[in-house]
Amino acid sequence: MQTIEAFSVREATCQDIPAIVDIHNGNVRTPTLLSHQGFLLATTTAEEVLDQFKKCVQYWVAVDCTERIRGFVAFSWPKLDENSLTAIFWYDESERKAIMGDRHIYIHVVATQKGYTGQGIARLMYKNLERHFPNSVFSTFIVRQPICNQRSIQFHQQQGFKVIGKVEREQFLDLKNYESVLLIKRT
Question: What is the count of structural domains for the chain?
Answer without folding.
Answer: 1
